[in-house]
Design brief:
The chain is of the alpha/beta class. Helices cover 32% and strands 21% of the residues. It has helices at 11-16, 18-21, 27-36, 46-58, 91-102, 120-124, 137-150, 177-180, 192-195, 199-218, 292-301, 339-350; strands at 38-42, 62-66, 107-111, 129-132, 154-160, 163-169, 227-232, 237-242, 268-271, 279-282, 305-309, 313-318, 321-326, 331-334. A hairpin with a 4-residue loop joins strand 7 (227-232) and strand 8. The protein binds zinc ion (ZN).
Length: 352
């Protein structure tokens, strides 16, 4: 039981957070800053799961979580927000439900969308900190540009196989992502589906990101402002690389020498599938507000089996074709021969 009462906090909250309120680096004033903070976690896969669990449990008052995927069985090895009962559910819906169970004292705002160059600013606007749980560079660049423009600190994190890296971008003070990792096309990079990823490196990198985000919320200088921490699980080495702001950076430099790296809007793209199956993803820039009741009726009329009917999306299967439609209009179609077939199915399902 709490031994003292604090304005703005219930006894139950004081009890919940008691082990960090006693920390010198947080205390009661820090707990209030956490409660007042608005944080956006973009991507609730491996990194995002660990980040969201920690930030929610620490009491970040408003947590916006953004992801376009549904939970798959192959996620569960590392994405600890989810269990087998959530396979087929939109990740943000499953994550929000889990977070409400973890901490009833905070607000969680699930956004079932892809981050695109067309919507990144709208997604992060009004946030105090943005934390990266992504697995591709294009949406990171979109976020980085939005955060630099709006002056929002952005905690970058990336993992693959046994290695990971973290850096904290403070607009106007530190290098941005494109100063130190610019110009990388996603099709040049290995993916987790192909290369694999160890859950331990994810937890390490995610924990460093959370520590950085909390320092920002506390008003303290982040440890990785202007530096990249590189960790290799294989020999458990941590290497700190000091980064220099690039004056010629087309995103944050004072004297850009070139145009920013062009970003594909990616409203329609093919992503890597398993066992040679082709997977197509449609990502609208704006929330289309799909009527899921009507969609479900249409799916059943067309002979699809609905495997999950969730509040923010539906998953379905018919023969070799598998897919999901989220309330935002994000659509994944798997197991078809080519993009035209995928487009046709989506148009049929959404009544376009
Ligand atoms: Zn830059």
């Amino acid at each position: 039981m709490a031994r003292f009462s604090i304005p703005g906090f219930s006894d139950a909250e004081i009890d919940y957070y008691s082990r960090q309120i006693v920390l010198d680096s947080i205390g009661l004033s820090g707990q209030r800053k956490l409660k007042d903070a608005r944080v956006c976690v973009v991507g609730v896969g491996g990194l995002g799961s660990s980040i969201v669990i920690q930030l929610a449990s620490m009491g970040v008052g408003y947590l916006r979580i953004v992801d376009r995927d549904v939970v798959e069985a192959s996620n569960l090895q590392r994405q600890h927000l989810y269990g087998v009962d959530m396979v087929g559910y939109p990740k943000v819906e499953a994550a929000a439900e889990r977070v409400r169970g973890l901490n009833p004292f905070i607000e969680v705002d699930p956004v079932p969308m892809s981050v695109t160059p067309g919507n990144a600013e709208a997604i992060v606007e009004g946030m105090d900190v943005v934390v990266d749980g992504l697995d591709a560079m294009t949406p990171r660049y979109a976020l980085n540009r939005a955060c630099v423009k709006l002056g929002i600190p952005y905690v970058f994190g990336a993992v693959i196989t046994n290695v990971g890296s973290v850096s904290t971008i403070v607009p106007g003070e530190t290098p941005c992502v494109e100063c130190f990792q610019g110009g990388i096309a996603d099709d040049e990079l290995p993916t987790c589906a192909v290369a694999g990823v160890h859950p331990s490196i994810i937890s390490i990198i995610a924990s460093i990101q959370v520590s950085e985000a909390v320092r920002l919320i506390m008003g303290r200088k982040p440890n990785l402002a202007g530096a990249l921490m590189y960790c290799d699980l294989e020999d458990l080495s941590f290497e700190r690389i000091e980064l220099a702001r690039v004056d010629s950076c087309p995103v944050c430099g004072s004297d850009p020498v070139s145009e920013p790296f062009p970003l594909k809007h990616g409203s329609f793209e093919e992503i890597c599938g398993r066992e040679g199956r082709r997977v197509f993803v449609f990502s609208p820039d704006e929330d289309l507000g799909v009527d899921l009741e009507a969609l479900n009726g249409r799916l059943e009329g067309l002979g699809y089996l609905l495997t999950v009917r969730a509040r923010l999306g539906t998953s379905f299967v018919r023969g070799a074709v598998k897919g999901s439609v989220l309330s935002s209009g994000v659509t994944v179609i798997e197991g078809v021969d080519g993009p035209e077939v995928a487009r046709g199915i989506r148009a049929e399902l959404l009544g376009l």
